[in-house]
Amino acid sequence: MLTRLFSRIGRADAAPNGKINLPEQSTLIDVRNVVKIYETGAGKFLALKGVNMQVNTHEFVAVIGKSGSGKSTLVNMISGIDRPSTGEVFVDDTPIHRLNEGQLAVWRGKSLGVIFQFFQLLPSLTVVENVMLPMDFCNMYAPRERFDRAMSLLEHVGIAEHAHKLPSATSGGQQQRAAIARALANDPPIILADEPTGNLDSRTADQVFNLFSTLVQEGKTILMVTHDKDLAKRVTRAVTVADGEIVDEIRNP
Ligand code: ADP
Ligand code: MG
User: Fold this and answer.
1) Phi, psi of 81 (to 5 degrees)
2) What is the pTM of this model?
3) 20 to 30 A Cα–Cα from 106, which one of 90, 132, 198, 247?
C-alpha cells in the first residue's frame, strides 16, 4: 500500500523539450455520504448532513465556513480522529471508517501529516525530538538516520537553529513550522491542517501558507481549513461548508 502511495507522489519532471510533465491525477481522498451525529446532553446534533467530497492528488484545497459549520468535524473524519455515524471515507483506497483504533494509529502515522491551530507539540521534548517522534512511533527510517532526517526537515521549514530548544522557548510561527516538520516526518502524501494560521500574525501566516504552497509543488496533497478569505483565494480549490453541508465550491485559475 505504502509503496503505491509514494509512487504516485513526485515532482513534476521537465521533459527535454522543456514542457512540464505533470504527474497523473487520481482521487486520493473520497468522502461519501458522510453523516455525523453528536450525542449531546441536549439530544442529537447533526454536524454533517451527508457530505460528499473528493480530493485529487496534488490538489491544495481550502475548507472555509463560519465557526461551528462542521469544518473540523469533516477533517476529523478524514484523519480518523473521529468516525462517521454513517457513510464512508476512503483515503488512497483505504477504508478509514472500517479501521480499528490500532490500525488507524499506524495508518495515520505513515499516511497523513496533521497540523492543528495550537501546534500540539509535546512541551517536554525539544523541537527536533518532536520531529523525530512520528518516525520512532511508526518505526520508519533506521534509528540512526532519524536525527539527521529531522534536522533536514527543520532546515526545510527554516528553523534548524531552534532544533534544541523546548517549544515554549520559540515563537508561535516557529512552533507551527516545527509542527509542519513533524507532519512531514514520515513523508506522508497528504497534509491535513485545521486552521494552521489561526493563531499567527498575518505576516507569519503568509510565510506558513507559502511553505504549504511549496509542499504542494513538491508533490504533497493538502486539505486546509482556514478562516482567511485571502488565503482561500490562493489555493487550487476552495470548498465552503455551512450547517454541515458543502454549499459552494470555487476553482481558482
Ligand atoms: P467548525 O470547525 O466549523 O468550527 P466543528 O466541526 O468543530 O465546527 O463543529 C460543528 C458543530 O458540531 C458545532 O455546532 C459544534 O458545537 C458541534 N460539535 C463539534 N464537536 C462536538 C462534540 N464532540 N459533541 C457535540 N457537538 C459537537
Ligand atoms: Mg474547527
Assistant:
1) -65, -30
2) 0.88
3) 198
**What pLDDT, on the 0 to 100 scale, is given for residue 7?**
35
Q: Given this model, what pLDDT does residue 228 score?
A: 87
Closest CA to 177 of 162, 157, 161: 157
Atom of ligand 1 nearest to the CA of 45: 26
CATH of the domain at 217: 3.40.50.300
Question: Is residue 25 included in any domain, yes or no?
Answer: no
Cα(72) to ligand 1 centroid in Å equals 7
**Domain assignment of residue 149, yes or no:** yes
Question: Does the beta carbon of 73 sit less than 6 angstroms from any atom of ligand 1?
Answer: yes
Q: What is the pLDDT of residues 15-73, one digit of tens each?
A: 555 555 555 678 999 999 999 999 999 999 999 999 999 999 999 999 999 999 999 99
**Per-residue cell: 193:** 491542517
Taking the CA of 81 as reference, the closest ligand is 1
**Residues whose CB falls within 8 Å of the CB of residue 204, separated by 6 or more in sequence, listed in order:** 171, 172, 173, 176, 197
Q: Could you tell me the distance, in angstroms and rounded to a whole number, from the CA of residue 112 to the centre of ligand 1?
A: 22
> Is residue 87 in contact with ligand 1, taking CB distance under 6 Å?
no
Name the grid cell of 216.
504542494
- Show the domain range for 124: 2-19+58-80+108-251
6: in domain: yes
| For ligand 1, mutation pick of 45, 49, 245 (most atoms within 8 Å of CB) | 45
What does the alpha-carbon distance between residue 135 and residue 149 come to, in Å, rounded to a whole number?
A: 10
User: Number of structural domains, the chain?
Assistant: 1
Residue 97 inside a domain? The answer is: no
pLDDT band at 230 (very low <50, low <70, confident <90, very high): confident
